Amino acid sequence: MSLKRNLLLAGLALVGSAGLAQAEMSATTASDIEVRSGPGAEFPTVGVATRGSQATLDGCVEGSRWCRVDVNGMRGWVYAEYLSVEQNGAQVVVQDNLDDLGIPTITYEQTDTIRTGSIQAAQPGPNDQLLGPVGNGGDIVAITPPDEIRDYIDDNPVDTVQLNGNVVVGATVPQSIEVHRIPDYQYSYVEVNHQPVLVDPGTRRIVYVYQ
């Protein structure tokens, strides 16, 4: 079905040279990706851009994996590693080539109302696995992991698992999904919908979502 929303989204201030800021850069989505209303997994999903969709890339937040695009009638934010652009006749991943490609740097400011469009929304099938609901507030403990935990996850990547539901603190990872132990640390990790998360192995609740 078509999903039409009018969301109050964050505006942008383009930083850098005027030529780069005004240039339109074409990109292609490398997989089905969620388009969000802001540069972070905590922002609402505007919709889903299917694999191979053509997008206009405005720029990316410095030091972040988030970039703003216009795609399939939507304007929103997506991960740079799931965008590719053509360079010298070959498709290259935006995340790995930000400097070489001259991607404009943008910052995030809550100023403007930005349009969204209509897309074909992804619907869960009858046999799809779902993230469990978020638990009641008092028994969810969000953590702040040390930097070396992210380093370990980056050095020991795992296959992503695709689950329906919001990847947020307090959601429950199904028992059928393997979570991976981190040496000398009380929490385990798994990658859900291309987002690394830390999981309490006892309750299987998500305690931290990496952006």
Strand percent estimate: 35-45%
Q: What's the total count of β strands?
A: 16
The sequence of SSEs as H and E is EEHEEEEEEEEHEEHEEEE
Structural class: mainly beta
Measured as a percent range, the helix fraction is under 10%
How many separate helices?
3
Distance between the termini: 29 Å
Q: Give average pLDDT, whole number.
A: 75
Please tell me how large the radius of gyration is: 18 Å
Q: What kind of sheet is the major sheet?
A: 8 strands, mixed
Shape: globular
Unreliable stretches: 1-22, 111-127
What does this protein structure show overall?
This protein is mostly beta strands and about 210 residues long. The chain is built from three helices and 16 strands.
Q: Could you outline the blueprint of secondary structure elements for this entry?
A:
Layout: E1 2-4, E2 11-15, H1 18-22, E3 25-29, E4 33-36, E5 45-49, E6 54-61, E7 66-71, E8 74-79, E9 83-87, E10 90-93, H2 98-101, E11 105-109, E12 118-120, H3 147-155, E13 180-181, E14 188-192, E15 195-199, E16 206-209
Parallel strand pairs: 6-11
Antiparallel strand pairs: 1-12, 2-11, 3-6, 3-9, 4-5, 6-7, 7-8, 9-10, 13-14, 14-15, 15-16
